[in-house]
Amino acid sequence: MAGIEVPNIVIGRLPIYLRALSHLMEKGQEYTSSQELGQILGIGSAQIRKDLSHFGEFGKQGTGYEISYLRDQISKILHVDRDWTVVLVGFGDLGQAIANYGGFGSKGFHIKAIFEIDPPKIGNRTNGIVIQDVEMLSEVISDKQIRMAIVAVPAAAAQVVADKLVEAGVRAILNYAPITLTVPDYVKVQYIDPVVHLQTMAYYLL
Amino acid sequence: MAGIEVPNIVIGRLPIYLRALSHLMEKGQEYTSSQELGQILGIGSAQIRKDLSHFGEFGKQGTGYEISYLRDQISKILHVDRDWTVVLVGFGDLGQAIANYGGFGSKGFHIKAIFEIDPPKIGNRTNGIVIQDVEMLSEVISDKQIRMAIVAVPAAAAQVVADKLVEAGVRAILNYAPITLTVPDYVKVQYIDPVVHLQTMAYYLL
Question: Which of A96, A155, B57, B93 is deepest in the core (most CB within 10 A)?
Fold first, then answer.
């Protein structure tokens, strides 16, 4: 499989499979099938088998997939079988909700530094992390060799923040600001824009 | 074009085009091209022309697209040239950030009711909206004929909430809880799960 590039859309589905597998494990189930996964996720079972076939053979005819094995394998493929250090930029309402969300740490994504431009917030602590002046961003990221960042600043500030993050060495940005960021090809950006989702669904409502 | 179903993935890109067009308008620009839009969004210009061709002819050879016209047309196609009423279920950290986010109302999505299960929060007000007991959910949605909901409750409660929403008449759910919801075919669900995005990007980091 080395050297063959897997389509981005397939990579994007692996975390969804992982989530479903974890859910089944929590329920105490040991085996599953592409049919069952497909039903849970609303994806065709053939699509699931094809997606997984990019990475090897994970199921057995008759018994299907051993859930804990498949979960471990997908975790390795995605490089989420280890811990990641993440910085958060922006500590407004949204940034605070992100900092307090338990779902990142439990999946191995640890917010280890938080940056903010608003002086009254700087120096405060949340979950043991000191909110730092955004001026410190480059230094902290370089020192700690951090590669992942979450951007939760207003739209007008997001591109400047992204530029600083990339310059400091960040290679993956989760952007909550409602603008498309311009970054070099070697940097990945994913977007969270709830309005885009509401607008997409509005199409189907009339 | 009536009767021909446009692929979901095309519909999902229209809000992104809308966002880019609004951004260009705010900068005072009057005309754009599929090339320029493609560059801003990291999408091929041929793809953009093909997406738009599902709905008609919007550009002119030589001058390209008139931004305000194209924006209005896409708004109409998506049914976002009108206001939508939305309910929010869950008023924890995330629900509070959602309720306070100005980006929904400015795009015509108005949160008009908020529901919560935690007694101390019920009866409080935020932006003029009273937090109501989740027991009131069905009645309020039926009365006001609300079709859109944002779910910001813990994973364990999300399916029960979704069932109640659908029964009361909701047809579009924006789900922030990290589980896949089971809903009838006539209900649209879109997901916001930041961990999925971080996991997807982790693949590319090593």
Answer: A96
| Sequence letter at residue A134 | V
Torsion sign across C-alpha atoms B139, B142, B143, B148: positive
Kindly list the residues from chain B whose CB atom is less than 8 angstroms away from the CB atom of residue A100.
93
Per residue in B135-169, pLDDT tens? 999 999 999 999 999 999 999 999 999 999 999 99
H-state helical runs in chain A: 8-26, 34-41, 45-53, 67-78, 93-100, 137-144, 155-168, 194-205
pTM as predicted: 0.89
ipTM of this model?
0.95
Interface probe, candidates A1, A23, A25, A197, chain B, greatest B C-beta count within 10 A: A197
Least confident of A9-13, A70-74, A80-84, A137-141: A9-13
Position B114 scores a pLDDT of 98
List of chain B residues whose C-beta atoms are within 8 Å of the C-beta of residue A5: none
CB A105 within 8 A of CB A83: no
pLDDT of B188 strictly over 80: yes
Q: φ, ψ for residue A121 (rounded to 5)?
A: -85, -25
Chain A residue whose CA is closest to B193: A192
Return all residues near B65 (Cβ < 8 A) that are at least 6 apart: B31, B32, B33, B34, B37, B58, B59
DSSP summary character for residue B13: H
**Beta bridge partner(s), residue B113:** B87
Which structure tokens are listed for B78?
């998506």
B194: distance to nearest CA of chain A, Å?
7
